[in-house]
Amino acid sequence: MFTQRDLILMSVALCLGISVGHVATAGSKPEVQESALWDWESLTPSPTGVGQVRQVLRAPTATLDQLEIHVTTLNPGQISHPPHKHPNEELVILASGKLEATSNGKTRVLGPGSIIFNASNQLHGVRNVGDVPATYHVINWASPGTLKKNQAETEAKAAELQATGAPPAAKAAPAKP
Question: What CATH number corresponds to the domain at position 133?
Answer without folding.
Answer: 2.60.120.10
